[in-house]
Amino acid sequence: MNAKTSTAESKQRKIKGKTIIDIERCKGCELCVTACKEGAISMSKRINNMGYRYAVVINDLCTGCANCALLCPDGVIKVYRESKKKKELVATISNVQSDIKVEISNPSKEDLSKMDYI
Fold this sequence. Notes:
By secondary structure, this protein is an alpha+beta fold. The protein has helices spanning 3-10, 31-35, 67-71, 109-114; strands spanning 16-21, 41-47, 53-57, 77-82, 87-94, 101-104. Strands 1-4-5-6 form a 4-stranded antiparallel beta sheet. Strands 2-3 form a two-stranded antiparallel ribbon. The longest helix has 8 residues, at 3-10. The two termini are 25 Å apart.
């Protein structure tokens, strides 16, 4: 376990995220690993059907910031943010082959006051 991971694990999460990666479409560029300030994404030792090592997520560390989804050149990452009330999709990238459509919900002032990384 590295220092970044142990620090992230010791924080009490006020906002939790859940990241889903389509591992069969992931090309292993590692941009999401670099973008994740919480250390929640790493590269698998296994390969997918296309022959690439793919990104995997430790959702216990994810805050739902969506940096990974915004940087993914292939649009294979979806990020959800969980609040006490519900789980909502906060970022999705689609139509990567042509136009790129980015949807990010704006957090409320209450959400911003609870975020430990701002």
